[in-house]
Design brief:
Layout: H1 2-11, H2 13-43, E1 56-59, H3 74-81, E2 86-100, E3 106-114, E4 125-129, E5 139-143, H4 144-149, E6 158-161, E7 164-173, E8 182-187, H5 188-194, E9 204-209, H6 215-223, E10 229-232, H7 233-247, H8 250-279, H9 281-289, H10 294-329, H11 340-357, H12 359-367
Parallel strand pairs: 3-8, 5-7
Antiparallel strand pairs: 1-9, 1-10, 2-3, 2-6, 2-9, 4-7, 5-8, 6-7
Helix pairs in contact: 1-10, 2-8, 2-10, 2-11, 8-11, 8-12, 10-11, 10-12
């Protein structure tokens, strides 16, 4: 029966290819939009993508997400440093500034200020120059895509940031944030000069827990200070993602697009699969007249649906993966993230689509009379 079912499926190549391509389009839409959505969520976490030093982030208790914060004062930094179990606590600056280019154009950049002593929050990968060169007065390190957007600037070039001189001492690699603006690194003191704020100039406090100390207990002690909140990186990331999904229209828009792919795949495959069944109804009637039961015929249809679903999913997912690889190869601004959970979810959804589409065909085949083989 397996051989017969497959021969029936592959016999009409036009309808088979149409079914496969319809499901491939649905799988492509679900995977591509899902990957872009997840990529945007990770981009929304801003500096959390790049900072690998420190166990805790200390922020204002009212913070909703990483890019909307209330500044902390030096006295809060001192109090956090005095908490038992804290190895070190360092200020981190996250602000914005306008950079004047030699061409007369300008570019808005994200200014990340890291402590001069420990350089906590530094970029992981340096492409040109040395991280220690940030100790030079007016020094900045520019993210590589930002450097290209600024006219391929190199170490030794000078820029003007908010009417202040900036000396490029290095090029680094870092993940850009939600707005895909440029990124520059400098020391905390220099960042405050580039992007002036009020007297409470600390965006976040990075905290490293002493070796052997209980991080959860240290976090509790910091929270007991009352006017600050300590979060792990995963907690801060989850809070940011929750805010972006619930407080903006991004989640709804992508959900509609993904649902549209499911509906289009369902309607297209249902109509084609049903038409395919009608054209092969006499063959099913012959099998029924030869003694094949309804359960056998149902399994034949489900086997056909499974084959079409797997092939369509493979083509659609392959196309979505190729798009992601090309985008990564050319370092485009559009972020994509393909976790295995997305692939499993889209695979189950694709199979669900074709199985739901086969329900009409199953109903029609079960009700067919063996005498239909003698009909004109």
């Amino acid at each position: 029966m397996v051989h017969i079912a497959l021969r029936m499926l592959f016999g009409d190549r036009t309808k088979y290819l149409t079914l496969v391509l319809g499901l491939a389009f649905a799988a492509l839409l679900m995977n591509q939009q899902g990957a872009i959505f997840l990529g945007l969520l990770f981009q929304a976490t801003g500096p959390l993508q790049n900072v690998k030093q420190g166990d805790l982030w200390v922020v204002d208790p009212g913070i909703k997400w990483v890019l909307e914060y209330r500044g902390l004062g030096d006295q809060k930094l001192s109090r956090v440093r005095s908490v038992p179990g804290v190895e070190w606590a360092e200020p981190f600056f996250n602000g914005w500034a306008v950079t004047e280019l030699e061409s007369g154009d300008f570019k808005k950049v994200q200014v990340l200020g890291i402590p001069r002593a420990t350089l906590a929050g530094r970029p992981e990968v340096m492409i040109e120059g040395r991280l220690e060169d940030l100790w030079i007065p007016d020094a900045i390190i520019v993210e590589q895509q930002t450097a290209r957007a600024m006219g391929n600037i190199r170490p030794g070039d000078t820029l003007k940031i908010n009417d202040r001189r900036a000396l490029v001492v290095g090029i680094c690699k870092a993940r850009r944030g939600f707005e895909s603006n440029g990124i520059i690194y400098t020391t905390f003191e220099q960042a405050v000069r580039f992007s002036p704020v009020g007297r409470e100039s600390i965006s976040y406090i990075l905290v490293e827990v002493k070796p052997g100390a209980d991080a959860a207990l240290v976090k509790q002690r910091i929270n007991e200070l009352g006017d600050v909140l300590a979060l792990s990186t995963s907690e801060f990331r989850a809070r940011t993602i929750e805010f972006v999904v619930l407080a903006t229209g991004i989640g709804v828009n992508f959900a509609i697009t993904i649902a549209l792919g499911f509906v289009v795949g369902l309607l297209l495959s249902a109509s084609i699969f049903y038409q395919f069944t009608l054209e092969n109804l006499r063959h099913f009637a012959v099998l029924k007249a030869m003694g094949a039961g309804s359960v056998t015929l149902v399994w034949m249809i489900l086997l056909q649906a499974l084959v079409v679903g797997v092939v369509g999913f493979g083509i659609g997912t392959g196309a979505a993966g190729a798009f992601a690889l090309i985008n990564r190869r050319f370092e485009g601004d559009l972020a994509t993230y393909f976790p295995w959970q997305l692939l499993v979810g889209s695979f189950v959804t694709t199979l669900l689509t074709i199985f739901l589409a086969s329900m009409l065909s199953i109903r029609r085949v079960v009700r067919v009379s063996p005498g239909a083989v003698f009909s004109s």
